[in-house]
Specification:
single chain, 275 residues, mainly beta, Jelly Rolls, 2% helix
Length: 275
Amino acid sequence: MRRGRAAAILALALGGGCGDYTPLLQVTDPSLTLVWSDEFDGAEGNPPDPAHWNFDVGGGGWGNNQLEYDTDCCNNAALDGSGHLAIVSRVEQMGANAYTSARLNTKGKFTHAFGRIEARIKLPTGQGLWPAFWALGEDIDTSPWPACGEIDIMEARGDVPGVNHGSLHGPGYSGGGALTSPYALPNMARFPDAFHLFTLDWSAAGVSFAVDGTTYEQHFPAEVVKASKVWVYDHPFYLLLNVAVGGNFSGDPGSTTVFPQTMLVDYVRAYDRKP
């Protein structure tokens, strides 16, 4: 989710669009065991389960020149009563910020290493919208970003509604130098028009990104070591969901951007891989 020089995002080595890759874990792999999930069931207007989620509250730009103030209000993040979490970005003045939105995380409540992490999401649309489903190393307080590691499972620009980005940020390969690849939906389809499944398969051997079961990107420790960098994806990470407004990756909203904009999350699930 963090970006330094968006225009200089670098797809390294195995990152290259919709290549013919073999997933590290097959979509129907019987060795996967569900260990954590949120299905977002509950009454309309209820907040997300506090046993699962924290709110990051603030409006200082989050290191990316974002324009929104992220709140813990149900006006910005609540259940919709139909089994979804709705994260809503609004034109709303909050201090020096002209927009509000929400950023949720599982820090201190759930972390995961290896196996599979996935979410089924319907994205918002419009210039300046920056939705993301991602993960940060649980050691971020003692190993500040990017040394803790970051995994972007879903990251999209609202003005490019048919493209998702999967990325790894680590020491020496963060921001504009991240390990990253785009995935474009076939037949000019758009992520805001339907729910899509965003998946990370993760083992000691490496990481694999997929959309709707199609693997489009993989990265391996040897790839990073070869570049004289450090592989930092060998410890637990916590999960995040958010919709940023503006920022280095998406640019600012334009005159054609319609608010409010909503990201609907059908579920988030994590699996262990059986021995």
